Every structure is written in structure tokens, then in C-alpha cells.
Amino acid sequence: MLQTxxxxxxxxxxxxxxxxxxxxxxxxxxxxxxxxLGFATQLIKELSKADTGxxxxxxxxxxxxxxxxxxxxxxDKTPYKTHFAVGRLTKHKSVEIGxxxxxxxxxxxxxxxGYWMPQGEHIKAIRxxxxxxxxxxxxIIDEPQFKKAFGEFxxxxxxxxxxxxxxxxxxxxxxxxxxxxxAYRNLTDKEILSADAPKKIATLxxxxxxxxxFLNNAIG
Length: 220
Fold this sequence. Notes:
The chain has one domain. The protein contains nine helices and four strands; from the N terminus they run ααααβββαααβαα. It has helices at about 5-15, 20-25, 25-50, 60-65, 120-140, 145-150, 175, 190-195, 195-220; strands at about 85, 100-105, 110-115, 180-185. The chain starts with a helix and ends with a helix.
């Protein structure tokens, strides 16, 4: 169970995003980081029951992303992220396909899965799979419980023009125009702090799992 102090630390970090403040509050960070490691451990255990691509023995440290920002090419020079994130959980063919949890106070936490902004051969392969086997994808994304949890899949960012090789009268053109293939669900502070949060998040990921399978099959 995630502790309220962890969210409080992130709130304070957002208000005081400097190396000086961070060093003065290093002990608080260490406690929050340890709390997130414990949460990640619980989540991995629950996820491994829902998706065999998740290794129940993976080290939580490898799934918890660094809080330090890469500011070399950014106009925003604040040194720290104001959230914790858990990812890199699956053994799928593409490390880009999987699950991502972001913990951020102010009801800004979320769980997501699928493939964000595939490029090159991957986006071509996914569009080809949709063109050939759209019924498999629509069966996943139009399933009532999926739509209830994640909303309308087709409302993600799309191309303004037609994708190369496809015509406007294609029955599934709105899916073919997608730039990302993500299932996304916001989580409130109350939800992320609840005792059964890892199990509930794993249940959401279980609903995302068929989408990940479709995408992995597409890129071969």
C-alpha cells in the first residue's frame, strides 16, 4: 500500500524543484523511493498473474524509472520529475509495448498500456495488421468493459491526412490514421492510495493485455 507521505513528498518537490531543496530532503526522497519500490513489487506480483509476459521475479528497481530529468536538450531546466513511474515490465518482442504506471499527486496518476507513437517499420506493420485483421482489434477496443475503463480508443491523436497506401473509403480508416495505440485510465489520489491499488491496477492491465498481444503480433 502506497503511503500518503509519498504523495506529499512529490507535492513539495513540485513546489521546490531545486537541487538544494532535494538534497536537504534526501531522507524524505529515500523513504518515498522505498515506498514506491514496495508498491512496484506488489504490482509486479499481481501483473504476473494476468500476463505471462510479466516476470514475477523482475527486480523492482529495474522497473522504477529515475526521478532525475535529462535537461540537456530541454528548455525546462528543473532537475527532477514530480512523479514516480513504473514501466519496462514485459518480456515482449518490443520493449515499447507493455504497461506504464505514473504516480503523481493531485489526481494526476494514470495507468496506460499499448504502444505510444510507433515509428518506421512498426507503424507500417501495425497499420497492415489493422487493414488485414481489424475485426480482432475492434473486438478488443469495442468490448463494453474495455470502453468503460479506457473510453473511446479511436479518439487518440491521428494523422490529419490519409496514411500512405490507404484510401478514405477504407472501413477502418479512423483506426489506420492513429499515431498511437494506447489504452489510458486516470487514477485519483484515493485510488492510488487504497490498500488494493496494485490488484485493481493489475485488473486494468489484464484488460489491456489483449491489445498488447495484437500489437506484438503485428510487429512480429
